[in-house]
Task: structure prediction
Amino acid sequence: MKPTFKDYLSIALALLAIFLCGYGIGFLFGERKGLRHAPPPPSRPAPTSSIANWEETTLATLEKRIELTPAQRAMVRAEIATSAARVRSAREGALATYQAELA
Result:
């Protein structure tokens, strides 16, 4: 007796049903297991230094690496202060935008 198209179709549908049941059960149990063993989200790191400390550290690092005259030191200090102000302004702007989007 030669298999007919109906036989092949019933075998294909049975395999499809087995596959779909396995997928569904795996999805349900896998999701529960994944949620149960998920690590907690990382906490926000504490700030390690202030802007003023960063300015002084940067200036001290530059003075160690290169010899600066008093005029150059004043110019570098002004440039570092300007950079710190730009960073502070960008940070405050980003926080304001973030707070506005949350509201």
About this structure: The chain has a mean pLDDT of 86. The longest helix spans residues 70-102. The chain has two domains: 7-37, 51-102.
